[in-house]
Amino acid sequence: MLLLLAGCEEPFIVFPGGELSGEQSAVPEDWSQLVSIDTVQLETRMDDPYSVNIWAAGAGKDLYVATGEDGTNWTKHIADDPAVRLRSYSNVYALSARLVEEPAERARAAQAFVGKYDLEVDDNWVLEGMIFRLDRR
Length: 137
Hints:
It is a single chain. The chain is of the alpha+beta class. The longest helix has 15 residues. It contains four helices and eight strands. It is globular and about 40 Å long. Strands 1, 2, 3, 4, 5, 6, 7 and 8 form an eight-stranded mixed beta sheet that branches. The protein has a single domain, classed as Electron Transport, Fmn-binding Protein, Chain A (Pnp Oxidase, Chain A). The protein starts with a helix and ends with a strand. 23% of the residues lie in helices and 32% in strands.
């Protein structure tokens, strides 16, 4: 089983993958199309692609991804180079990740995750974590 997973280029459940396949697409004006999609794929490190399955929440023209407050491999990659690619269905979007630090925007992003993923308002891990807004490149 591990040998099969080692040969995968795409992320598989919790295992990271490499370069995402799909059709390079224009970035939407409104990310509400993601409301029915639980998981998208995020690719970092363009010179040696690293991709993961991740939750994403849209709030109008803004799209957010998040992780715990200690970060993870993909957050380290973004710190080195903010260029990312996101795949939804077969569409791949070239984006740039920016850490969200402003309290009002953090609250807005966290609320988008609460609404989409039915998270507890009082125990919303997103608000305490690292939140990234994905902008057009």
